[in-house]
Amino acid sequence: MATKIAVVVGSIRKDSFNRQVAEAITKLAPEGVEFNFVRIDDLPLYNQDSDAAPPELMTRLRNDIKAADGVLFVTPEYNRSIPGVLKNAIDIASRPWGHSVWAKKPVGIIGVSVGVIGTALAQAHLRNIVNYLDMPLYNGSEIYLAWKDGLVVDGEIGADSKEFLQGYMTGLVEWFKTH
């Protein structure tokens, strides 16, 4: 049976570096893994008034997370934290109170930025959030990728980073299978 991983990219920009890395890194996963890129760009802002009868887009998000065996967040850093669109998606799928679909979902976190450790604070904030949401966190390594020529080439992870990221994906998938 395939391991199903929901990939949530924190950037909705058309040419997002994080989307490019997310798409390329999934190709490094071992056999038997299915990835679902979860759409967050069309979600309404979370409003507690919607808890009783959530719009279809909110239900779609919740169902995508429920169907996954684990979650991979790939996020940039905006203003020393996570992007608002990502926080909104997290809030939607964690509500109504007591019915979070994030709970017990194992999670990995990576990010890419034009700076050397540009996603460090975003990832630190995201680790705090996933801890609160009761999501077991893969601590194989903290991945702060710097966007540079050759990181992603023709949709594939470049030679300089391939072995490192292949190791991350192998470890992440194996860890997901045991959690």
From TrEMBL:
Q: Which domain of life is it from?
A: Bacteria
List residues of the NADPH-dependent FMN reductase-like domain. 3-143
- List the InterPro entries: Flavoprotein-like_sf, FMN_Rdtase-like_dom, NAD(P)H-dep_reductase
**SUPFAM superfamilies, from UniProt?**
Flavoproteins (SSF52218)
Q: Which cofactor does it need?
A: FMN
* Assigned keywords, A-Z: Flavoprotein, FMN
Name listed for the protein in its UniProt record: NAD(P)H-dependent oxidoreductase
Species annotation: Lysobacter soyae
